[in-house]
Amino acid sequence: MINEFRTFIAKGNVMDLAVGIIIGAAFTAIVQSLVHDLINPVIGLILGGIDFTSMFIVLSGDVPPGSSLEAARESGAAIFAYGAFLTACINFLVIAWVVFLLVKAVNRIKDAAVDEGEPVPAAPKGPTQEELLSDIRDLLKSRGT
Asked: Where does the chain cross the membrane (predicted)?
C-alpha cells in the first residue's frame, strides 16, 4: 500500500497540481492586495474619496447611521453589501485577465518550441467523398439491396 502511495505521489500530475495550488494561493494574495491597495483607492477617489468596499444598504433591521460593514453584519440586520460584491468582481476580473495573459504566453512559447523542433508530420489523408460513396454503393450491391 505504501509503494502504491509513493507511485501515486511521484506521478507528474499530482506534483504539478500541488505546485499549481500553492502558486495559486500566493497569486491570490497578490491580486487581493492589488485590488484592495491599488485599484479600490483609485475607484474611491473617482467616487469622491469613498471606500466603496464597505458600502451597503440596510434591507431590514436597526443599524446605527455611519456604521461599518462589519458592525452592520454583527448587528444581525439584513444588509445588501454591494461594495464587497464589487470588490469580489474586480478580483475575479483581474485574476481572469492575468490567467488569460499567462495562458496566451505559454501557448506562444509552446508554438515557438514546435516551430524550432522537428517538423510535424502531416496527418494521413482520409478517403474522399467519392471513395466513401462508392464503398457504400458496393456494400449495398453485395447485400442485394
From this structure: 12-31, 38-59, 79-103
CATH superfamily, domain at 2-119: Large-conductance mechanosensitive channel, MscL; domain 1 (1.10.1200.120)
Report domain extents, the chain: 2-119
Distances (CA, A) of 72 to 85, 96, 131: 16, 31, 75
Q: State the pLDDT at residue 84.
A: 87
What does DSSP say about strands 57-60 and 78-80: parallel, antiparallel, or unpaired? antiparallel
Instruction: Write the DSSP string, 61-116.
Output: S---TT--HHHHHHTT-EEE-HHHHHHHHHHHHHHHHHHHHHHHHHHHHHHHHHHH
Whether the per-residue pLDDT at 83 is higher than 80: the answer is yes
pLDDT tens-digit readout, 96-111: 888 888 889 888 988 8
Q: Which residues contact 79 (CB under 8 A, 6 or more apart)?
A: 56, 57, 58, 59, 61, 63, 69, 72, 73
C-alpha cell at 26: 500566493
